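Morning. Coffee machine broken again, so started the prediction first thing and wrote up yesterday's gels while waiting. Chain of 250 residues, entered below exactly as on the submission form.
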Amino acid sequence: MKKRMVLIGLLLGFMLAPMMLSAQITIPTATPDPEMTAEMTPEATPEVITVVIEASEGQEIDPPITIELPDGWVSRNSAVAVQDVMGLRVLPFTLYAGRIDGGIAFIVLLWGFDNLAAAPPLSEDTVMLSPFMDGMRLLRLALLEPECNVGSDVEREYPIGDRLGLGTSFAAVDCPNTVDTRGWFVSLNVDNVNFAFYIYTEPIEAMDGAEEELQAILDTVRFDVPGFLERARAEYTPEPEITAEATPAS
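Came back before lunch.
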């Protein structure tokens, strides 16, 4: 699939009236501990419970964030299907794009996905999930063509709003159908929901000197997962059934 070409095509269709579609939400009854670890005991499984958005391909769902975009930037919600080792997945995403000096900048937010990767066990009884590995995997699955020549730097912390996530810089060149690009990604878990932000430019040279401008946009991000879940619960709570009792004929 021509991943980045698909995303840009969705952006170009932004002026079309959006469809009013719904999202199914898997809301866990358990909460992970603050360190995102899970004890491997007979009563527990080695995974952290997360809120997963079960979207349909092309579905438009507002993400649980706010972001301040520069004048002239646009955004579009959709969902994209990816083939993962656990099967076909449909991930909601939001594409933000706008002109910068020398080209166009893109911020792609993938969110509501379950955890796909784990870091090496801390001990025989504890395993830690890795936002960095999730972000790296989805970079390959959802944004880049498999044939791209991809290089990346070491894992490090990046700010998203008032929070810190894990990510790295990357470059993708020699792709069969898309132009060379470079940028960085940041993955993090906020209130049991996973987020992965991908920031890149086309052409690749447009990133030179644009990092501060793009980081300033990311600094405006604020998360509102509780509000999103509250609205979702209210929207999808079944209405009580109305029954009529038969009365004897007079």
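Helices lie at 3-12, 131-143, 211-218, 225-236. Going to sketch it on the whiteboard this afternoon.
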